TrEMBL record:
Residues 311-428 form the ABC3 transporter permease C-terminal domain. This is ABC transporter permease. Residues 20-265 form the MacB-like periplasmic core domain. Keywords: Cell membrane, Membrane, Transmembrane, Transmembrane helix. It comes from Luteibacter flocculans. It is found in: Cell membrane.
Amino acid sequence: MFSYYLQLGLRSLRRNPMLTALMVMAIGFGVAASMTTYSVFRATSRDPIPQKSDVLYNIQIDNWGPENTKEGEPPPALSYKDATALLRANKAKRQTVTYPVGVSVIPEDPSRMPMRQGAYATGADFFPMFDVPFLQGQGWTRDDDEKHADVIVISKSLNDKLFNGGPSVGKQVNLDGHLFRITGVMQDWSPQPVFFDVPNTSGFNEGATVYVPLTRALDLRLPNNGNNNCIKDPGEGWDNYLRSECIWLSLWAELPSKADAQAYRDFLTGYAAEMQRSGRFSWAPNVRVRDVMDWLSVQKVVPRESQVSLLVSLGFLVICLVNTIGLLLAKFMRRAPEIGVRRALGASRRDIYAQFLIEAGTIGIAGGLLGLLLTGLGVLSVGLVFPEEVARLATLDPTLMLLTLTVAIVASVVAAFYPTWRAAQVQPAWQLKSN
């Protein structure tokens, strides 16, 4: 019976091509608008490291006091004093402090110009903590951190530029006049959102190509290439900057269990209490230990415009469905005599429901195919509405394609329920008598 009803549905659609085209366009445009904005929302709200997001924690300490913070929320980064003190305490399975730096890679070939590269100063634990994928070698060791070693990890794209993609572990790279030995070449890696450096990236960027040890970066006084927030002038010179209450460092800890997270939270509270007793803080301890998804939520990483756009597009889809309901109602009720004859010949209301819902499903399939085309165009055009670093994340992958078709079919069938119910209420006797 399904194939029979499908044939009836297709025949009915061909009978009223203008009405069919209007319904297909309504479904197609409504679904395309919602799926295009959903592709952006999905990309910006995803879990960037799902295999470990519940054991990685961002650490915050209020070193500014309630008069310099909003709604009791500690600053989003740490001062040098706090970050290094917590590193030395070594209360986590792994922990790393990170800040962005800007460096110039000077090629060995004097005819080539220096290349400015995005970089991070960090610790050895960064790579195993965040499951950074390597093509060659590996990250440096904790012993390298302790020895302030001149070592470096570079990305595949930089390795392609410097060594034509060949083996480079053990070779040297000149950064701002200092030679660093390569310990590993990683994939071009940049989880989106960039959870480990939200304060400097707002959650989205193309990633870094160079990673150097934090201890060596501090020795070389590599300046912070990100946000630098101070409640008062730190004074002149690098040493004054390190002693100040300026916040510019991100600290992440890997804590395998909830008990470990609570123990670290208690330790952090005790540390802040000690700072209060010493006279550095004049306020009660105010600390936070948040996992990846909580951190991204508090920092409002998902762009507000993507949330608003998604709601607006869903509203547009509802309007399109309301219009489709009206068109289907007019189409189905025009066939009341046909329905009356079918009922008189023995068709049940269930048969009427099956026939017209299958017909609506064919409209949904056609609308879904149109929606796929329009969604593809929409995904290519999101850069006109969203920033480039956000727009490039939106993609029309197989999952989104399947979802687009599914939403179109389900939406059209749902829209057909009321018109079908009205059609099923047609009284055969009245239709036969009046016709």
